[in-house]
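Lecture notes, part 5. Sequence design as translation. It can be helpful to think of inverse folding as translation between two languages: the language of shapes and the language of residues. The source text, in structure tokens, appears below.
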């Protein structure tokens, strides 16, 4: 018997973690998520891209923290203790994403995922894999691989 793909359960649904960035709703594949933690202060890095807030020490690993709002072309978040960091693993790289709040874990059938509209005015359009109508909101599935090409931390002088 064939095993389900890593990002799908035995029922064929795809599991996603939904989160808010300001008033905007997004989600990402739950298989990328290592942990969800509260905001913690970062160590800033000189010459880092503007969307990289800095780095944290996560059990001995240096993890870059990305302001996902800034990276998506939205109004940058001003981190507070109410904000959340989603720690994700992308290949061999661990990255933290600053978001406003984590909302839910969703099981979505592939048929529920619609292609994103191709409108040039939405700054996030190139980063969206699909759109889901969930309850009274529209969720955009982020293609994390395009949101975050490999991060190279600036070399120390």
């Amino acid at each position: 018997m064939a095993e389900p793909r890593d990002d799908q359960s035995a029922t064929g649904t795809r599991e996603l973690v939904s989160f808010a960035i300001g008033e905007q709703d997004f989600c990402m594949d739950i298989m990328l998520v290592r942990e969800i933690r509260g905001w913690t202060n970062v160590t800033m890095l000189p010459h880092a891209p503007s969307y990289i807030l800095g780095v944290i020490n996560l059990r001995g690993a240096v993890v870059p923290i990305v302001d996902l709002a800034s990276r998506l072309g939205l109004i940058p978040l001003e981190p507070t203790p109410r904000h959340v960091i989603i720690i994700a693993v992308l290949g061999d790289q661990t990255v933290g994403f600053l978001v406003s709040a984590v909302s839910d874990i969703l099981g979505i059938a592939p048929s529920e995922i619609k292609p994103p509209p191709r409108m040039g005015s939405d700054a996030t359009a190139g980063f969206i894999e699909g759109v889901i109508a969930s309850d009274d909101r529209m969720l955009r599935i982020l293609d994390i691989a395009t949101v975050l090409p490999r991060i190279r931390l600036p070399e120390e002088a």
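The translated text above is only one of many valid answers, since several sequences can fold into similar shapes. The radius of gyration is 16 Å.
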